[in-house]
Amino acid sequence: MLNLIRSVRPAAVLLRPAATAAQPCARASTGPQQEHRTFYEFRTYSIRPDQNAAFLKLTNEKIHLRTAHSQLIGYWSVEYGGLNQVFHIWKYDSYAQRAAVRAALAQDPTWVSEYISKALPMLTCQDNEVTYLVPWSRLLNPQQEGGVYELVSFQMRPGGPAVWGSAFQAAVTSRDAPGYGKLLGAFHSEFGLQNRVHALWWYESADQRAEVRHKAHNDARVVAAVRNSVSHLDTQRNQLMFPCPFSPMS
């Protein structure tokens, strides 16, 4: 994330010799993106195996009660990389808006009685993460309906975007080109694991995604960019997901 690199005020450089005080200092903060109030909440629900179909059916029938309060970006069922899970993204303009939405939902008797009271017993756990779009990324819609989505999560080494941002940007954007997948958004975690970034991709099918991976392994341009980024990487995880019928990204 090249644009995430910020100049550090002199006061932020601690215990450094005067000769090196002008050099940038590695920071764990997310940088300029914090100046923008809009953020995206990633939510992952793990469902009891015997309740997976029932949970999806209930959500399909009642999701309108939830979207009446705030904007749903996408809702997916995880096919590979996690069994009996759903992943969804919600957009908020501010933390105050999210707090107001959560308070309103808690006081919405229809939402509580017709969905929450029935859905919660079907779940084994819930997880959430607050993310921002990185400055060089825009949230896009897929090129056409259908297809599959891949969420790739990178746990970068401590130091923040000032250390690994440009390498991550180069690695991701090297594959956002004709003949490859379509990058729908790149995100940086604000609450959750720190130094974590995500790339949301769209492919025509799982087989097309496999073809793209094979092509990338033989593309010197992509290989060079990825090799440079890997030196800053601790772990990587991916999930292949299918959009639910009610997902805005479908």
UniProtKB/TrEMBL annotation:
Alphabetical list of InterPro entries matching this protein: Dimeric_a/b-barrel, NIPSNAP, NipSnap_domain
Question: Which family is this sequence assigned to?
Answer: Belongs to the NipSnap family.
NIPSNAP domain ranges (all copies): 40-138, 149-248
A Gene Ontology annotation in the biological process aspect, one of them, is: mitophagy
Instruction: Write down the superkingdom of origin.
Output: Eukaryota
Q: Transmembrane segments in this chain: where?
A: none
What GO cellular component entries does it have?
mitochondrion
Native species: Austrofundulus limnaeus (Annual killifish)
What protein am I looking at? Answer: Protein NipSnap homolog 3A
